[in-house]
Protein backbone atom coordinates (compact mmCIF):
# COMPACT_ATOMS: atom_id res chain seq x y z
CA UNK A 1 0.00 0.00 0.00
CA UNK A 2 1.37 3.38 -0.93
CA UNK A 3 1.82 5.96 1.76
CA UNK A 4 0.79 8.92 -0.40
CA UNK A 5 -1.91 10.96 1.40
CA UNK A 6 -1.50 8.91 4.55
CA UNK A 7 1.52 10.49 6.09
CA UNK A 8 5.25 10.70 5.92
CA UNK A 9 7.09 7.71 7.27
CA UNK A 10 10.07 9.09 9.10
CA UNK A 11 13.06 6.82 8.73
CA UNK A 12 15.42 6.34 11.59
CA UNK A 13 12.94 7.46 14.26
CA UNK A 14 11.88 4.03 15.38
CA UNK A 15 13.70 0.75 15.41
CA UNK A 16 11.97 -2.57 15.80
CA UNK A 17 13.77 -4.97 18.06
CA UNK A 18 12.84 -8.49 19.04
CA UNK A 19 11.57 -7.21 22.37
CA UNK A 20 9.62 -4.22 21.05
CA UNK A 21 10.26 -0.53 20.46
CA UNK A 22 13.09 1.69 21.64
CA UNK A 23 13.61 5.41 21.24
CA UNK A 24 16.30 7.82 22.33
CA UNK A 25 15.41 10.85 24.40
CA UNK A 26 15.58 13.13 21.35
CA UNK A 27 13.39 10.89 19.22
CA UNK A 28 9.64 11.17 18.94
CA UNK A 29 7.70 8.16 20.26
CA UNK A 30 5.94 6.03 17.69
CA UNK A 31 2.49 7.44 17.04
CA UNK A 32 -0.34 7.66 14.54
CA UNK A 33 -2.60 10.70 14.79
CA UNK A 34 -5.52 11.90 12.72
CA UNK A 35 -5.57 15.67 12.15
CA UNK A 36 -9.16 16.70 11.31
CA UNK A 37 -8.33 20.43 11.53
CA UNK A 38 -6.12 20.38 8.44
CA UNK A 39 -7.64 21.41 5.14
CA UNK A 40 -5.99 19.16 2.61
CA UNK A 41 -9.35 17.96 1.28
CA UNK A 42 -12.97 18.95 1.72
CA UNK A 43 -15.29 16.71 3.71
CA UNK A 44 -17.04 15.69 0.49
CA UNK A 45 -13.72 14.70 -1.02
CA UNK A 46 -12.84 12.78 2.11
CA UNK A 47 -16.09 10.83 1.95
CA UNK A 48 -15.80 10.21 -1.77
CA UNK A 49 -12.19 9.15 -1.97
CA UNK A 50 -11.61 7.86 1.55
CA UNK A 51 -8.44 9.93 1.81
CA UNK A 52 -7.77 11.59 5.16
CA UNK A 53 -7.05 15.29 5.35
CA UNK A 54 -3.83 14.59 7.17
CA UNK A 55 -2.40 11.82 9.31
CA UNK A 56 0.84 12.38 11.12
CA UNK A 57 2.74 9.18 11.70
CA UNK A 58 6.11 7.87 12.76
CA UNK A 59 6.21 4.15 12.21
CA UNK A 60 8.09 1.56 10.17
CA UNK A 61 7.17 1.03 6.53
CA UNK A 62 5.64 -2.38 7.19
CA UNK A 63 3.01 -0.79 9.45
CA UNK A 64 1.75 1.59 6.77
CA UNK A 65 -0.93 -0.90 5.75
CA UNK A 66 -2.68 -0.31 9.08
CA UNK A 67 -3.63 3.27 8.26
CA UNK A 68 -7.02 2.44 6.72
CA UNK A 69 -8.38 2.63 10.25
CA UNK A 70 -7.35 6.26 10.37
CA UNK A 71 -9.46 6.96 7.30
CA UNK A 72 -12.53 5.59 9.08
CA UNK A 73 -11.58 7.49 12.22
CA UNK A 74 -11.04 10.69 10.26
CA UNK A 75 -14.50 10.53 8.69
CA UNK A 76 -16.14 10.04 12.10
CA UNK A 77 -14.13 12.77 13.79
CA UNK A 78 -14.56 15.25 10.95
CA UNK A 79 -18.33 14.78 10.87
CA UNK A 80 -18.59 15.12 14.64
CA UNK A 81 -16.46 18.27 14.74
CA UNK A 82 -18.48 19.85 11.93
CA UNK A 83 -21.72 19.41 13.90
CA UNK A 84 -20.40 20.59 17.29
CA UNK A 85 -22.05 24.02 17.40
CA UNK A 86 -25.44 22.83 16.18
CA UNK A 87 -25.47 19.84 18.53
CA UNK A 88 -24.34 21.96 21.48
CA UNK A 89 -27.24 24.36 20.90
CA UNK A 90 -29.65 21.44 20.59
CA UNK A 91 -28.31 19.98 23.82
CA UNK A 92 -28.72 23.26 25.70
CA UNK A 93 -32.26 23.72 24.36
CA UNK A 94 -33.17 20.16 25.35
CA UNK A 95 -31.73 20.47 28.87
CA UNK A 96 -33.32 23.89 29.43
CA UNK A 97 -36.72 22.63 28.29
CA UNK A 98 -36.52 19.53 30.49
CA UNK A 99 -35.60 21.64 33.52
CA UNK A 100 -38.33 24.16 32.71
CA UNK A 101 -40.96 21.42 32.65
CA UNK A 102 -39.71 19.63 35.77
CA UNK A 103 -39.41 22.82 37.84
CA UNK A 104 -43.00 23.69 36.93
CA UNK A 105 -44.45 20.24 37.69
CA UNK A 106 -44.62 19.08 34.10
CA UNK A 107 -46.74 20.15 31.15
CA UNK A 108 -49.99 19.98 33.14
CA UNK A 109 -48.55 21.98 36.03
CA UNK A 110 -47.27 24.65 33.65
CA UNK A 111 -50.61 24.76 31.82
CA UNK A 112 -52.46 25.18 35.14
CA UNK A 113 -50.24 28.13 36.10
CA UNK A 114 -50.91 29.76 32.74
CA UNK A 115 -54.70 29.38 32.73
CA UNK A 116 -54.99 30.53 36.36
CA UNK A 117 -52.81 33.58 35.61
CA UNK A 118 -50.23 32.52 38.22
CA UNK A 119 -47.48 33.64 35.91
CA UNK A 120 -45.34 34.90 38.74
CA UNK A 121 -45.02 31.35 40.08
CA UNK A 122 -43.52 30.06 36.83
CA UNK A 123 -39.94 28.99 37.57
CA UNK A 124 -37.31 29.91 34.97
CA UNK A 125 -34.33 27.50 34.97
CA UNK A 126 -30.91 28.96 35.68
CA UNK A 127 -28.04 27.00 34.10
CA UNK A 128 -25.45 26.22 36.74
CA UNK A 129 -27.91 26.34 39.64
CA UNK A 130 -28.08 23.46 42.10
CA UNK A 131 -31.45 22.39 40.68
CA UNK A 132 -30.48 22.57 36.98
CA UNK A 133 -29.91 18.96 35.94
CA UNK A 134 -28.17 17.49 32.93
CA UNK A 135 -29.92 15.11 30.57
CA UNK A 136 -28.35 12.24 32.50
CA UNK A 137 -29.99 13.56 35.66
CA UNK A 138 -33.36 13.71 33.92
CA UNK A 139 -33.01 10.24 32.45
CA UNK A 140 -32.20 8.77 35.85
CA UNK A 141 -32.94 11.10 38.79
CA UNK A 142 -31.88 8.61 41.48
CA UNK A 143 -29.25 10.10 43.75
CA UNK A 144 -29.47 8.30 47.11
CA UNK A 145 -26.86 5.65 47.82
CA UNK A 146 -27.90 2.02 48.08
CA UNK A 147 -28.61 0.48 51.47
CA UNK A 148 -29.20 -3.26 51.34
CA UNK A 149 -31.98 -4.01 53.83
CA UNK A 150 -32.89 -7.33 52.25
CA UNK A 151 -32.52 -10.62 54.09
CA UNK A 152 -29.40 -11.40 52.07
CA UNK A 153 -27.97 -7.98 52.84
CA UNK A 154 -28.57 -8.34 56.57
CA UNK A 155 -27.03 -11.78 56.52
CA UNK A 156 -23.93 -10.41 54.83
CA UNK A 157 -23.42 -7.44 57.15
CA UNK A 158 -24.27 -6.46 60.70
CA UNK A 159 -24.76 -2.91 59.40
CA UNK A 160 -27.00 -3.70 56.44
CA UNK A 161 -29.40 -0.96 57.50
CA UNK A 162 -26.74 1.73 57.05
CA UNK A 163 -24.32 2.84 54.36
CA UNK A 164 -20.91 1.24 54.76
CA UNK A 165 -18.25 2.98 52.67
CA UNK A 166 -15.51 2.23 52.17
CA UNK A 167 -16.32 -1.44 52.60
CA UNK A 168 -13.54 -3.84 53.52
CA UNK A 169 -14.36 -5.66 50.29
CA UNK A 170 -13.67 -3.21 47.45
CA UNK A 171 -15.67 -5.47 45.14
CA UNK A 172 -18.84 -5.23 47.22
CA UNK A 173 -22.18 -3.91 46.00
CA UNK A 174 -21.95 -0.93 48.37
CA UNK A 175 -18.60 0.18 46.97
CA UNK A 176 -19.80 -0.35 43.40
CA UNK A 177 -22.94 1.70 44.11
CA UNK A 178 -20.98 4.68 45.43
CA UNK A 179 -18.79 4.55 42.32
CA UNK A 180 -21.62 4.22 39.78
CA UNK A 181 -23.57 7.09 41.36
CA UNK A 182 -20.40 9.19 41.46
CA UNK A 183 -19.88 8.44 37.75
CA UNK A 184 -23.47 9.55 37.11
CA UNK A 185 -23.17 12.66 39.26
CA UNK A 186 -20.04 13.73 37.35
CA UNK A 187 -22.29 14.84 34.47
CA UNK A 188 -23.88 17.55 36.62
CA UNK A 189 -22.74 21.12 37.21
CA UNK A 190 -20.57 21.90 40.29
CA UNK A 191 -23.47 23.18 42.40
CA UNK A 192 -25.56 20.05 41.86
CA UNK A 193 -22.53 17.88 42.63
CA UNK A 194 -21.81 19.72 45.88
CA UNK A 195 -25.46 19.58 46.98
CA UNK A 196 -25.84 15.84 46.39
CA UNK A 197 -22.50 14.91 47.99
CA UNK A 198 -23.16 16.94 51.13
CA UNK A 199 -26.94 16.71 51.54
CA UNK A 200 -27.83 13.31 50.11
CA UNK A 201 -24.66 11.33 50.71
CA UNK A 202 -23.59 13.14 53.92
CA UNK A 203 -20.01 13.16 52.71
CA UNK A 204 -17.41 15.88 52.17
CA UNK A 205 -17.12 17.64 48.80
CA UNK A 206 -13.51 18.56 48.00
CA UNK A 207 -13.26 20.09 44.53
CA UNK A 208 -14.74 20.23 41.04
CA UNK A 209 -12.19 20.16 38.21
CA UNK A 210 -12.86 21.91 34.88
CA UNK A 211 -9.78 21.16 32.80
CA UNK A 212 -8.26 22.24 29.51
CA UNK A 213 -7.86 20.04 26.43
CA UNK A 214 -5.15 21.68 24.34
CA UNK A 215 -5.96 19.68 21.21
CA UNK A 216 -9.67 20.61 21.31
CA UNK A 217 -8.87 24.16 22.52
CA UNK A 218 -11.53 24.11 25.24
CA UNK A 219 -12.26 23.15 28.84
CA UNK A 220 -13.74 19.75 28.06
CA UNK A 221 -12.51 17.44 30.84
CA UNK A 222 -14.47 17.52 34.08
CA UNK A 223 -14.11 15.56 37.31
CA UNK A 224 -14.86 15.98 40.99
CA UNK A 225 -13.38 14.74 44.25
CA UNK A 226 -15.05 13.93 47.56
CA UNK A 227 -14.22 12.12 50.81
CA UNK A 228 -16.31 9.99 53.13
CA UNK A 229 -15.78 12.57 55.91
CA UNK A 230 -14.03 15.94 56.34
CA UNK A 231 -11.28 14.73 58.70
CA UNK A 232 -9.47 11.43 59.11
CA UNK A 233 -11.10 10.23 55.91
CA UNK A 234 -10.96 6.58 54.92
CA UNK A 235 -11.89 7.11 51.27
CA UNK A 236 -11.11 9.70 48.60
CA UNK A 237 -13.14 9.31 45.40
CA UNK A 238 -12.36 10.90 42.03
CA UNK A 239 -15.10 10.64 39.39
CA UNK A 240 -14.59 11.70 35.76
CA UNK A 241 -17.39 13.02 33.55
CA UNK A 242 -18.19 10.83 30.57
CA UNK A 243 -19.47 11.42 27.06
CA UNK A 244 -22.26 14.00 26.98
CA UNK A 245 -25.04 13.13 24.54
CA UNK A 246 -24.85 16.40 22.56
CA UNK A 247 -21.12 17.07 22.93
CA UNK A 248 -19.71 15.82 19.65
CA UNK A 249 -16.15 16.59 20.77
CA UNK A 250 -16.63 13.94 23.47
CA UNK A 251 -17.91 11.45 20.90
CA UNK A 252 -15.01 12.31 18.59
CA UNK A 253 -12.58 11.32 21.34
CA UNK A 254 -14.29 7.92 21.65
CA UNK A 255 -14.20 7.35 17.88
CA UNK A 256 -10.70 8.72 17.31
CA UNK A 257 -8.43 5.70 16.96
CA UNK A 258 -5.15 7.62 17.09
CA UNK A 259 -2.46 6.22 19.35
CA UNK A 260 1.02 6.74 20.70
CA UNK A 261 3.44 4.03 21.82
CA UNK A 262 5.35 4.83 25.01
CA UNK A 263 8.31 2.70 26.01
CA UNK A 264 7.51 0.33 28.85
CA UNK A 265 3.80 1.15 28.68
CA UNK A 266 2.71 0.20 25.17
CA UNK A 267 0.23 1.76 22.78
CA UNK A 268 -2.19 4.26 24.36
CA UNK A 269 -5.24 6.02 22.93
CA UNK A 270 -3.98 9.50 22.06
CA UNK A 271 -7.33 11.24 22.57
CA UNK A 272 -7.54 10.09 26.19
CA UNK A 273 -4.01 11.30 26.93
CA UNK A 274 -5.03 14.67 25.48
CA UNK A 275 -8.14 14.73 27.67
CA UNK A 276 -5.89 14.33 30.72
CA UNK A 277 -3.83 17.32 29.57
CA UNK A 278 -0.68 15.27 29.03
CA UNK A 279 -0.02 15.79 25.29
CA UNK A 280 -1.34 17.27 22.08
CA UNK A 281 -0.94 15.68 18.65
CA UNK A 282 -0.39 19.11 17.14
CA UNK A 283 2.98 19.24 18.89
CA UNK A 284 4.90 15.94 18.60
CA UNK A 285 7.43 17.39 21.04
CA UNK A 286 4.78 16.97 23.76
CA UNK A 287 4.86 13.19 23.20
CA UNK A 288 8.62 13.17 23.65
CA UNK A 289 8.46 15.45 26.70
CA UNK A 290 5.85 13.25 28.41
CA UNK A 291 7.96 10.15 27.86
CA UNK A 292 11.14 11.84 29.05
CA UNK A 293 9.45 13.27 32.16
CA UNK A 294 8.32 9.76 33.07
CA UNK A 295 11.77 8.31 32.36
CA UNK A 296 13.44 10.94 34.53
CA UNK A 297 11.15 10.31 37.47
CA UNK A 298 11.48 6.53 37.25
CA UNK A 299 15.26 6.81 36.96
CA UNK A 300 15.36 9.05 40.03
CA UNK A 301 13.47 6.49 42.08
CA UNK A 302 15.69 3.70 40.86
CA UNK A 303 18.83 5.70 41.64
CA UNK A 304 17.64 6.38 45.16
CA UNK A 305 16.68 2.75 45.60
CA UNK A 306 13.19 3.77 46.67
CA UNK A 307 10.42 1.26 46.28
CA UNK A 308 8.01 3.76 47.80
CA UNK A 309 7.93 7.52 48.04
CA UNK A 310 8.16 9.10 51.48
CA UNK A 311 4.67 9.47 52.90
CA UNK A 312 3.02 12.80 52.08
CA UNK A 313 2.33 12.99 55.80
CA UNK A 314 6.01 13.70 56.37
CA UNK A 315 6.30 16.41 53.70
CA UNK A 316 5.71 20.13 53.93
CA UNK A 317 3.29 21.78 51.46
CA UNK A 318 6.25 23.01 49.38
CA UNK A 319 7.75 19.52 49.33
CA UNK A 320 4.39 18.10 48.24
CA UNK A 321 4.32 20.47 45.28
CA UNK A 322 7.86 19.44 44.38
CA UNK A 323 6.97 15.75 44.71
CA UNK A 324 4.02 16.22 42.35
CA UNK A 325 5.84 18.30 39.73
CA UNK A 326 4.05 18.38 36.39
CA UNK A 327 4.19 15.21 34.32
CA UNK A 328 2.56 16.87 31.32
CA UNK A 329 4.37 17.01 28.02
CA UNK A 330 2.65 20.26 27.04
CA UNK A 331 4.72 23.47 26.70
CA UNK A 332 5.63 25.25 29.91
CA UNK A 333 3.42 28.27 29.18
CA UNK A 334 0.40 25.92 29.25
CA UNK A 335 1.57 23.91 32.25
CA UNK A 336 1.90 27.08 34.34
CA UNK A 337 -1.22 28.82 33.01
CA UNK A 338 -3.60 28.97 35.99
CA UNK A 339 -6.54 29.69 33.71
CA UNK A 340 -6.04 26.40 31.89
CA UNK A 341 -6.00 23.65 34.48
CA UNK A 342 -4.61 20.35 33.20
CA UNK A 343 -6.51 17.32 34.48
CA UNK A 344 -3.66 14.96 35.35
CA UNK A 345 -1.50 17.57 37.05
CA UNK A 346 -4.31 19.35 38.89
CA UNK A 347 -5.96 16.18 40.19
CA UNK A 348 -2.61 14.68 41.20
CA UNK A 349 -1.65 17.81 43.12
CA UNK A 350 -4.98 17.84 44.96
CA UNK A 351 -4.75 14.15 45.82
CA UNK A 352 -1.31 14.79 47.32
CA UNK A 353 -2.75 17.53 49.54
CA UNK A 354 -5.65 15.34 50.65
CA UNK A 355 -3.41 12.37 51.43
CA UNK A 356 -1.14 14.64 53.46
CA UNK A 357 -4.08 15.45 55.77
CA UNK A 358 -5.70 11.99 55.57
CA UNK A 359 -2.88 9.42 55.59
CA UNK A 360 -5.23 6.45 56.11
CA UNK A 361 -7.44 7.21 53.12
CA UNK A 362 -7.77 4.88 50.14
CA UNK A 363 -8.23 6.20 46.61
CA UNK A 364 -11.18 5.23 44.42
CA UNK A 365 -11.59 6.17 40.76
CA UNK A 366 -14.83 5.98 38.80
CA UNK A 367 -16.28 6.99 35.45
CA UNK A 368 -18.76 6.14 32.72
CA UNK A 369 -18.02 6.09 28.98
CA UNK A 370 -15.23 8.59 28.25
CA UNK A 371 -15.05 9.15 32.02
CA UNK A 372 -14.45 5.42 32.45
CA UNK A 373 -11.52 5.59 30.04
CA UNK A 374 -10.01 8.47 32.03
CA UNK A 375 -10.66 6.70 35.35
CA UNK A 376 -8.83 3.70 33.91
CA UNK A 377 -5.95 5.61 32.31
CA UNK A 378 -5.31 8.09 35.13
CA UNK A 379 -4.00 5.54 37.70
CA UNK A 380 -2.01 3.79 34.97
CA UNK A 381 -0.30 7.09 34.22
CA UNK A 382 0.31 7.57 37.95
CA UNK A 383 2.24 4.31 37.83
CA UNK A 384 4.01 5.24 34.59
CA UNK A 385 5.16 8.56 36.08
CA UNK A 386 6.29 6.84 39.30
CA UNK A 387 3.72 8.37 41.68
CA UNK A 388 4.15 5.34 43.91
CA UNK A 389 2.77 6.95 47.08
CA UNK A 390 -0.58 7.37 45.37
CA UNK A 391 -0.48 3.98 43.65
CA UNK A 392 -0.09 2.27 47.00
CA UNK A 393 -3.21 4.06 48.23
CA UNK A 394 -5.53 2.86 45.44
CA UNK A 395 -8.48 0.88 46.76
CA UNK A 396 -10.45 0.29 43.55
CA UNK A 397 -11.07 1.50 40.01
CA UNK A 398 -14.64 1.20 38.70
CA UNK A 399 -15.52 1.88 35.07
CA UNK A 400 -18.93 1.58 33.42
CA UNK A 401 -19.30 1.30 29.65
CA UNK A 402 -15.63 2.18 29.17
CA UNK A 403 -14.04 2.22 25.68
CA UNK A 404 -10.70 0.50 25.09
CA UNK A 405 -7.64 2.49 26.10
CA UNK A 406 -4.52 0.66 24.91
CA UNK A 407 -2.96 -2.29 23.12
CA UNK A 408 -1.81 -5.74 24.30
CA UNK A 409 1.38 -4.35 25.85
CA UNK A 410 -0.64 -1.73 27.73
CA UNK A 411 -2.99 -4.49 28.91
CA UNK A 412 -0.08 -6.51 30.32
CA UNK A 413 1.36 -3.45 32.05
CA UNK A 414 -1.98 -2.57 33.66
CA UNK A 415 -2.83 -6.16 34.62
CA UNK A 416 0.49 -6.45 36.45
CA UNK A 417 -0.25 -3.33 38.50
CA UNK A 418 -3.99 -3.37 39.20
CA UNK A 419 -5.17 -6.97 39.43
CA UNK A 420 -7.94 -7.25 42.02
CA UNK A 421 -8.52 -3.49 42.09
CA UNK A 422 -10.03 -2.92 38.64
CA UNK A 423 -13.71 -3.57 37.93
CA UNK A 424 -14.85 -3.04 34.34
CA UNK A 425 -18.64 -3.25 34.13
CA UNK A 426 -20.31 -3.83 30.74
CA UNK A 427 -24.05 -3.89 30.10
CA UNK A 428 -25.38 -6.23 27.40
CA UNK A 429 -25.12 -4.64 23.92
CA UNK A 430 -23.57 -1.33 24.95
CA UNK A 431 -21.59 -0.15 21.92
CA UNK A 432 -18.94 1.97 23.63
CA UNK A 433 -16.99 -0.84 25.42
CA UNK A 434 -16.57 -2.43 21.98
CA UNK A 435 -14.63 0.49 20.46
CA UNK A 436 -11.92 1.17 19.36
CA UNK A 437 -11.94 -2.24 17.71
CA UNK A 438 -10.09 -5.28 19.00
CA UNK A 439 -8.96 -6.79 15.72
CA UNK A 440 -5.78 -7.55 13.82
CA UNK A 441 -5.47 -4.05 12.42
CA UNK A 442 -6.53 -1.74 15.26
CA UNK A 443 -5.20 -3.94 18.08
CA UNK A 444 -6.89 -2.11 20.97
CA UNK A 445 -7.43 -4.31 24.04
CA UNK A 446 -9.24 -4.11 27.34
CA UNK A 447 -7.33 -5.15 30.44
CA UNK A 448 -8.77 -7.00 33.40
CA UNK A 449 -11.89 -9.14 33.48
CA UNK A 450 -15.30 -8.00 32.27
CA UNK A 451 -18.19 -7.81 34.74
CA UNK A 452 -20.90 -8.51 32.18
CA UNK A 453 -24.64 -8.00 32.80
CA UNK A 454 -27.38 -9.04 30.40
CA UNK A 455 -30.71 -7.31 29.74
CA UNK A 456 -32.32 -8.56 32.98
CA UNK A 457 -29.20 -7.66 34.99
CA UNK A 458 -27.91 -11.18 35.53
CA UNK A 459 -24.14 -10.93 35.78
CA UNK A 460 -21.11 -13.06 35.14
CA UNK A 461 -17.37 -12.45 35.06
CA UNK A 462 -15.84 -13.02 31.63
CA UNK A 463 -12.41 -12.60 30.12
CA UNK A 464 -13.93 -10.21 27.60
CA UNK A 465 -17.36 -8.97 26.60
CA UNK A 466 -19.38 -11.00 24.05
CA UNK A 467 -19.45 -9.71 20.47
CA UNK A 468 -16.26 -7.71 21.18
CA UNK A 469 -16.38 -5.52 18.06
CA UNK A 470 -20.15 -4.84 18.04
CA UNK A 471 -20.68 -4.69 14.28
CA UNK A 472 -21.68 -7.97 12.67
CA UNK A 473 -24.65 -9.02 10.58
CA UNK A 474 -25.00 -12.22 12.61
CA UNK A 475 -25.87 -10.24 15.74
CA UNK A 476 -27.95 -7.39 14.32
CA UNK A 477 -31.29 -9.23 14.48
CA UNK A 478 -30.79 -10.45 18.05
CA UNK A 479 -29.60 -7.00 19.19
CA UNK A 480 -32.72 -5.34 17.76
CA UNK A 481 -34.98 -7.97 19.33
CA UNK A 482 -33.21 -7.47 22.64
CA UNK A 483 -33.66 -3.68 22.31
CA UNK A 484 -37.41 -4.23 21.87
CA UNK A 485 -37.42 -6.39 25.00
CA UNK A 486 -35.58 -3.66 26.93
CA UNK A 487 -38.32 -1.15 26.05
CA UNK A 488 -41.02 -3.54 27.29
CA UNK A 489 -39.05 -4.47 30.42
CA UNK A 490 -38.27 -0.85 31.33
CA UNK A 491 -41.81 0.39 30.62
CA UNK A 492 -43.74 -2.34 32.45
CA UNK A 493 -41.97 -5.28 34.04
CA UNK A 494 -39.12 -3.78 36.05
CA UNK A 495 -41.48 -1.72 38.22
CA UNK A 496 -43.72 -4.74 38.83
CA UNK A 497 -40.76 -6.94 39.62
CA UNK A 498 -38.58 -4.63 41.73
CA UNK A 499 -40.80 -1.77 42.86
CA UNK A 500 -41.50 1.81 41.86
CA UNK A 501 -37.94 2.88 42.69
CA UNK A 502 -36.90 1.32 39.37
CA UNK A 503 -39.56 3.05 37.26
CA UNK A 504 -37.89 4.82 34.38
CA UNK A 505 -38.55 8.42 33.42
CA UNK A 506 -40.39 9.24 30.21
CA UNK A 507 -37.18 10.69 28.82
CA UNK A 508 -35.33 7.43 29.53
CA UNK A 509 -38.08 5.39 27.87
CA UNK A 510 -37.95 7.70 24.86
CA UNK A 511 -34.21 7.07 24.53
CA UNK A 512 -34.84 3.32 24.63
CA UNK A 513 -37.38 3.65 21.82
CA UNK A 514 -34.76 5.56 19.84
CA UNK A 515 -32.36 2.72 20.60
CA UNK A 516 -34.47 0.38 18.50
CA UNK A 517 -32.57 1.81 15.53
CA UNK A 518 -29.09 1.54 17.08
CA UNK A 519 -29.33 -0.83 20.10
CA UNK A 520 -25.82 -0.11 21.31
CA UNK A 521 -26.60 3.55 21.98
CA UNK A 522 -29.57 2.92 24.29
CA UNK A 523 -27.55 0.20 26.00
CA UNK A 524 -24.99 2.83 27.00
CA UNK A 525 -27.43 4.59 29.33
CA UNK A 526 -26.25 4.93 32.94
CA UNK A 527 -29.67 3.69 34.06
CA UNK A 528 -28.58 0.23 32.94
CA UNK A 529 -25.41 0.40 35.03
CA UNK A 530 -27.13 1.63 38.19
CA UNK A 531 -29.66 -1.18 37.81
CA UNK A 532 -26.92 -3.74 37.14
CA UNK A 533 -25.09 -2.81 40.35
CA UNK A 534 -28.27 -2.81 42.47
CA UNK A 535 -30.16 -5.75 40.96
CA UNK A 536 -27.50 -8.06 39.59
CA UNK A 537 -25.18 -10.38 41.48
CA UNK A 538 -22.31 -8.26 42.77
CA UNK A 539 -19.67 -9.53 42.92
CA UNK A 540 -20.87 -11.43 39.88
CA UNK A 541 -20.73 -15.16 39.37
CA UNK A 542 -17.45 -17.03 39.56
CA UNK A 543 -15.12 -16.24 36.72
CA UNK A 544 -15.57 -18.27 33.56
CA UNK A 545 -12.27 -19.97 32.85
CA UNK A 546 -12.51 -19.77 29.07
CA UNK A 547 -14.05 -17.28 26.69
CA UNK A 548 -17.79 -17.75 26.35
CA UNK A 549 -19.19 -18.15 22.87
CA UNK A 550 -21.69 -15.45 21.90
CA UNK A 551 -24.36 -18.10 21.33
CA UNK A 552 -24.16 -19.26 24.93
CA UNK A 553 -24.47 -15.70 26.22
CA UNK A 554 -27.47 -15.05 23.96
CA UNK A 555 -29.18 -18.26 25.07
CA UNK A 556 -28.47 -17.39 28.71
CA UNK A 557 -30.03 -13.97 28.16
CA UNK A 558 -33.07 -15.57 26.49
CA UNK A 559 -33.55 -17.97 29.41
CA UNK A 560 -33.36 -15.06 31.85
CA UNK A 561 -35.99 -13.14 29.86
CA UNK A 562 -38.35 -16.14 29.93
CA UNK A 563 -37.66 -16.63 33.65
CA UNK A 564 -38.34 -12.94 34.31
CA UNK A 565 -41.71 -13.11 32.57
CA UNK A 566 -42.58 -16.35 34.38
CA UNK A 567 -41.74 -14.89 37.79
CA UNK A 568 -43.78 -11.79 37.05
CA UNK A 569 -46.76 -13.96 36.15
CA UNK A 570 -46.32 -15.82 39.44
CA UNK A 571 -46.20 -12.51 41.29
CA UNK A 572 -49.46 -11.41 39.71
CA UNK A 573 -50.91 -14.62 41.10
CA UNK A 574 -49.68 -13.56 44.54
CA UNK A 575 -46.78 -16.00 44.77
CA UNK A 576 -43.87 -13.53 44.88
CA UNK A 577 -43.05 -9.99 46.02
CA UNK A 578 -40.88 -7.12 44.75
CA UNK A 579 -37.52 -6.15 46.17
CA UNK A 580 -37.09 -2.91 48.08
CA UNK A 581 -34.57 -0.15 47.41
CA UNK A 582 -34.19 3.54 48.22
CA UNK A 583 -36.12 5.94 46.04
CA UNK A 584 -34.96 9.52 46.68
CA UNK A 585 -34.30 11.44 43.46
CA UNK A 586 -32.61 14.72 42.64
Structural topology:
Blueprint: E1 15-17, E2 20-22, E3 30-34, H1 43-49, E4 55-58, H2 68-82, H3 84-103, H4 106-115, H5 135-139, H6 151-156, H7 173-185, H8 190-200, E5 204-213, E6 218-227, E7 235-240, H9 248-255, E8 259-262, E9 266-269, H10 270-275, H11 284-304, H12 317-323, H13 332-335, H14 343-357, E10 362-368, H15 370-384, H16 388-391, E11 394-400, H17 408-418, E12 422-427, E13 450-453, E14 459-462, H18 473-498, H19 506-514, H20 519-522, H21 526-535, H22 550-572
Parallel strand pairs: 7-10, 10-11, 11-12, 12-13
Antiparallel strand pairs: 1-2, 3-4, 3-8, 5-6, 6-7, 8-9, 13-14
Helix pairs in contact: 2-9, 3-4, 7-21, 18-22
Detailed description of the structure:
Residues 237-439 form the Fungal lipase-type domain. This is Fungal lipase-type domain-containing protein. The chain has 586 residues and is of the alpha/beta class. It has a domain at 162-481 and 525-570: Alpha/Beta hydrolase fold, catalytic domain (Rossmann fold), CATH 3.40.50. 43% of the residues lie in helices and 13% in strands. It is built from 22 helices and 14 strands. The chain has helices at 43-49, 68-82, 84-103, 106-115, 135-139, 151-156, 173-185, 190-200, 248-255, 270-275, 284-304, 317-323, 332-335, 343-357, 370-384, 388-391, 408-418, 473-498, 506-514, 519-522, 526-535, 550-572, and strands spanning 15-17, 20-22, 30-34, 55-58, 204-213, 218-227, 235-240, 259-262, 266-269, 362-368, 394-400, 422-427, 450-453, 459-462. An eight-stranded mixed sheet has the order 5-6-7-10-11-12-13-14, sandwiched between helices. It has a four-stranded antiparallel sheet with strand order 4-3-8-9. A hairpin with a 3-residue loop joins strand 8 (259-262) and strand 9.
Amino acid sequence: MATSGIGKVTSGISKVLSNGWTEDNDETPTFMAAQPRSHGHSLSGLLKHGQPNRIDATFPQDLAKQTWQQKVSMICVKLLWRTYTVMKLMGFATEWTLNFLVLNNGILGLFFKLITFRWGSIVIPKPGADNFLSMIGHMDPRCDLYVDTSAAGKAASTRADALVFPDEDVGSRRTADVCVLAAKLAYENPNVVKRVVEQNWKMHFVKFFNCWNEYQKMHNTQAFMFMDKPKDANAVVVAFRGTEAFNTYDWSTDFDFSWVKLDGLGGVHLGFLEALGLVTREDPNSLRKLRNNARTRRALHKERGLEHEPSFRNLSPDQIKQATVSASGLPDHLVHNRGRSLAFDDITSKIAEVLHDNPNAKLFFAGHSLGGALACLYPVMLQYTAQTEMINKIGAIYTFGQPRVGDAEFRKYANDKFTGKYFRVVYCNDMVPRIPFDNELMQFKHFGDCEYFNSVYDGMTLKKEPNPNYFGFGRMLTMHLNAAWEVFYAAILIRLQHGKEYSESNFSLLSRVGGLMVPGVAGHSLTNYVNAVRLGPFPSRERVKEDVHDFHVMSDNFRDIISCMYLETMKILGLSRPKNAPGTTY
